[in-house]
Write a structure and sequence with these properties.
YaeB-like fold, globular, 5 strands, 5-stranded mixed β-sheet, single chain, 105 residues, 26% helix, DUF4258
């Protein structure tokens, strides 16, 4: 199955998410709660795909929390384990992204 947004949303809705050590550290530093991440992933959109990433293809997604926070997350889908791996999470900045946070400057 190809890397797609509906799989990301479905795995997030089913709480089939695993956070890499790096993502846990960064989320703590950036004061991003797991609940906020899940909210953002439930209605996210794909910004960039990285199909050649190893060990799993990954992608950058954009989502928003109920509180209006904008988040980017790099995620990978493990089809065999039916798991969404969270590589990193951050708030995109206007200095690095065009309005809407879907295109890099």
């Amino acid at each position: 199955m190809p890397f797609n947004i509906s799989t990301i949303r479905s795995l997030a809705a089913s709480d089939k998410m695993a956070l890499k050590r790096h993502s846990i550290l960064r989320m703590h530093q950036r004061r991003i709660a797991v609940d906020e991440l899940k909210e953002a992933l439930l209605f996210c959109e794909l910004v960039e795909g990285y199909p050649t990433d190893r060990p799993l293809p990954s992608g950058l997604v954009l989502g928003h929390t109920a509180g209006g926070r904008t988040l980017h997350a790099v995620v990978a889908i493990d089809q065999d384990e039916q798991m969404l791996w969270i590589i990193t999470v951050y708030e995109p900045t206007p200095a690095d992204w065009e309005e809407g946070f879907t295109q890099r400057r």
